[in-house]
Write a structure and sequence with these properties.
- By secondary structure, the protein is of the alpha+beta class.
- Helices cover about 20% and strands about 35% of the residues.
- The protein has helices at about 30-35, 105-120, and strands at about 5-10, 15-20, 25-30, 40-50, 50-55, 60-65, 70-75, 85, 95.
Length: about 120
């Protein structure tokens, strides 16, 4: 990856930068994600929390119940309430919402291209 992708919420109060490639990019279609996004799925970049640099206001954690009785943390902008990250299984790993990247399409192509090169070469 040549540059460090940046992203943030809709109003611009929360800003972040990824300092490395994510572990992987995935598309989740579970009912919890459908309810939280109001969509059929969400695209997440799984990355270590320490590799996400907060550049402006920090998103605020909100506990959200899951169908299995557990809770997860969704980090939202305190002003516009956009979900920026999720934390499902505990601290240390974040699911960055790909739609909050400044250039989500470019990043997806970069990660896919890098992954394919590792598989081929």
């Amino acid at each position: 990856m040549n540059s460090h992708p940046q992203g943030g919420c809709t109003c611009g109060a929360v800003r972040y930068r990824l300092s490395s490639e994510p572990l992987f990019v995935h598309c989740c279609h579970c009912l919890n994600c459908q309810r939280q996004t109001g969509s059929a799925f969400v695209i997440n970049l799984l990355i270590e929390a320490e590799r996400v640099e907060i550049l402006a206001a920090a998103p605020q954690p909100v506990e959200v119940p899951r169908d299995d009785g557990n809770v997860q943390q969704i980090f939202r902008c305190p002003r516009c309430q956009v979900a920026v990250f999720s934390e499902y299984s505990g601290p240390g790993v974040w699911f960055v919402r790909a739609g909050t990247l400044d250039e989500p399409t470019r990043s997806r192509q970069t990660y896919t291209s890098t992954r394919d090169q590792r598989l081929v070469g």
